[in-house]
Amino acid sequence: MSSVGFQVATHSGYFLGGSGLCRLKCKVQCSQLWQSTSLVNNQKEKDRYSWIDQSTSYLHVQSLRNFPTEKLCGEVVVVRLDSALLLGHLGPCTFLLERALLTIKYLYKARAKVIIVTSWDTTLQSNNPEVKSIDSFAEYLSSLLQVEVIPVDGGPGLISFKKEEWVQNSIILFENLLNFRGEVANCNDFSQKLASGATIFVNDSFSLSHKILASTVGITRFCYASLAGFHFDEELTRLIKITDTTRHPYIAIVGGGNFLRKAPALRMLISLCDGLFFVGKLSFQIMKGLGMPVPSQFIERNAIREALQIIQIARDRNVPIYYPTDLWCLNNDNCGTLGVINSTGQLDGWTPADIGPSTLEKISSIVPLYMKILWIGSTKYDLAEEFSVGATQLGQILEKASFDNCEVILVGSAACNALRRKTGSSTQCIEFKNATVVWEFLKGRILPGIAALDKRYPYRIPWSTVFCDSTLPLVVDIGSGNGLFLFEMAKRYECSNFLGLEMNEKGMALYEKRNLYFVSTNATSTFHSIVSSYPGRLSLVTIQGKSV
Q1: For residues 275 and 30, which has the higher predicted lDDT (pLDDT)?
Q2: 397: Cβ–Cβ under 8 A, 6 or more apart, which residues?
Q3: Rounded Cα distance, 155 and 306, in Å
Q4: pLDDT for residue 224
Q5: Confidence (pTM)
Q6: How many CA atoms lie within 13 A of 498 on its CB side?
Q7: CA-to-CA distance for 202 and 515, rounded, in angstroms?
Q8: Edge-to-edge strands of the sheet including 516-520?
C-alpha cells in the first residue's frame, strides 16, 4: 500500500507521517483514543483487563516471525526478555533456553540495534553469581549469545547512553527493571523512557502476560510496531491449544485450592472438556456438593454455590466428574507417619497430604479413554513437598499417555516438576510453568501483555469484498462512535473508501454503504497492521471525526 501524500486531520493529537507507514506513530495525547488506554490511574486499567470477554480475537497478534526482515535492518528494537528462562537453565543449553535466545540472535542477524530490557530478583537468586550486578548479568548474556552485551546503568532509555559507545556488533542491556517503581505502576513517563530512540518493540516474556507493566504494556504506545518474539509466539500457540477441542475426548485433572477464585475457569473447563477429575483441596468442595461427608475445616463456605453450579453444568452436558477415592494422610499424633485413608471415611486425627494409590489406579484406568489431557494445579494439600507422594506417580501415568498418541498439557510447577523428577529430561508433553497466566486465560480475562501487541489483521480483512473498489483512496476515522460522521462522509465522497476503527462495538450503528466499513478494535495497537494491508492509498486520518 502506498502511503505517500496522505493528509492528517486530528483533534488534540497528531500523527507522524513520512515516506512510508513503517514510521507511522500514533501519539494522540488528549483525545478519547489516548484516554481509553491511559494508565494515569493504574487501578482503572486493572479493572479494564478483568472484564470477562468471550472473544479471543485479541490473541491473534503480529509476530516477529512474520514481520518483514528488511524492515528490521538499522532499526532500534527493544526486546522484553524473560530472565527466568535464562537463569533457570544455567549450564548446558536446553530447548527453552535456545528458544529464549533465538529472538535476540534473529534480530542481531537482521542487523537491528537490539536493546534488552528484563528483570531479575537478586534476593531469590542470591546464590547465583550471574545476577549480582548488571555487569555480571551482561557478561553472562554475552557468553550465551557469543556477542558483546553492553550494560547501561542508571535510567532506562537511550537518553542516558552515549551512542558513540554503541558499536555495530554489540547489544545493549538496560538496568534491572525491578529497580524502578515505574515498571510495576506502568508509568507513562517511564514507558516513554524505555522506548526512547526505539521504533520496534518485541515481547518475549510470555510468563508476564497477565501483568500490566511498563515494559510489556505501556511501552507499546511509543513504538510503531509491537510484536511477539519467537518464545512468546510459541507459548501463545500452546495456550490457545488448551481450549481447542478438536482432539477429544478431553479430560482435565484439576487441583490446588481456592475454589471460589477459580470458579470461572472451572466453568470454562466443564463446558469444554468431556470429563473433570478433581484432586487437591478442590476435590473436597466437589465431594461436598455431591452430598458426601467432608470435614468442615476442608470446605470453603463461600464457594458452595459455585461448586453446585459446576456439578449442574456437568449433569446438563452428561460429563463425568471424578474425585479421589483415597488419600495419603499424615497422622497428627505420630508426626511423620503416613497412612492411606478412604476419602469418604473418618479423617479426624489425619491431615490429607496427597492422592492415594487407589485414586492413581482409577486415573490410570480412565486415561486411555481420552485423547487429550490437561493437568493443572497441585494434587497435594497444604503439607510440605516431602509428603507429596502421588504427584510423581501421576506424572508417570501422563508421561506414558503422551507416548500413546495422547496430547498431554501440564500447567504449573507442581505438574511440570512431577514429570521432571521421574524423567529428568524433556518430554513430549506441553508445559506451562507459570499457572497464573493459564488460570487467567481460562477465566476468560484479557491478558494485558498479549492485548497490547499489534493484532494480526485480518486474519484477513477482505478489502475487495467490503469495498466495491479497493484501489480508491482510503480515509480512516479513529474513534468512530456510532459511525454517523463516516456515513455522511461516505455519502458525500463516493470516490473514496472510509474505514472506521472503534473500540466499543455495541455503539456502532449499521450502515449499508459499499465504500464504508467498520472494525471493532483498539487502534492504538492495531492501526498499522490493519491499514498496511490496504491495496490502495491512505489519503486521510481523522480522530473522533474532527479535524484542525
Answers
A1: 275
A2: 360, 363, 364, 367
A3: 48
A4: 83
A5: 0.75
A6: 25
A7: 35
A8: 7-8, 538-543, 474-478, 497-502, 516-520
